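seq/struct pair 1
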Amino acid sequence: MSRLQTVLFLLLFSHIIACAQSQITKSENPDKSIENWKTLNHEKYKINYPPSWDLKEDGQMGTSFILFSPSLNETDNFGENVNLLIQDLTGFNLNLDQYVELSEGQITTMIVDGDIILSERKNNDKGQYHKITYTGKQGFLDLKFEQFYWVLENKAYVLTLTCKEDKFDDYQRTGEEILHSFQIKQD
């Protein structure tokens, strides 16, 4: 395994563990009105999220931030979430196509039952990115992920929605609204 593959695997694996082990504060009646959403305005990026979601910027497992959904009830032991990893690609000379190829290889070979459902290039008013949706197991959890990748100025931005597979449809709309609100600030 090359140095780059090792680095990408460790970041991907630590990201999955961080998301799978997290619990959040119990909350009811999440606010679904986008007009009332909060904004995380960082020097490198900006993202909007519902006020009922809990923001953590403690760098857990290498993330820049994690947004946790409110728990549904007292037995809800997994916090569906959106998180951001920023990877330094200096010296690797990777473009978006190469980054996607490496990531897809790791999903199918290094994640238990990793299965890519969708992988496609997208364009919007904020530029070009790659969207990938996949499933996999982490311990006893069956998870589903939706990720957006950008490669800009020797950095890979990996924005991920992580859900229990059987709850993904419940969180997809709000999760995608959060993902689509993300903006990278460029000089």
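seq/struct pair 2
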Amino acid sequence: MTPKRAADSAAASNKITSRIEELGDWRGEALARVRRLIHEADPEIEEQWKWEKPSSPGTPVWSHDGDVCTGESYKEVVKLTFFRGAALDDPQGLFNSSLAGKTRRAIDIRDGDELDEGAFTALIRSAVAANGAARARRASPKT
């Protein structure tokens, strides 16, 4: 990782930690739990903070060979949007939101919901593998 990317990643990690603390309720706990699971599933994943503007504080994003998922928090849900979700196998049925989209799928976590940690970890690994495969396709010479 270049020094700039390392600094950007550290700044993003600090913003995510601040966001978790700022929430201070079940949403912060849920976001902290999925963050831990994401890093357990892929220790090389990078944290980013995107789409910050005056009308929005920004959004946590986890990336490896491309964006994997976001971790947005709303009043009633913590929403984990997977960028390539429609292409991923989801045998445990974790995706419960944004199901009509052609590319993305999301998991909405509500207060009191239990997340199947094993299935979630497998989904993160699958998303990272899909990003790696897409990157390899782009890098291979066209015949």
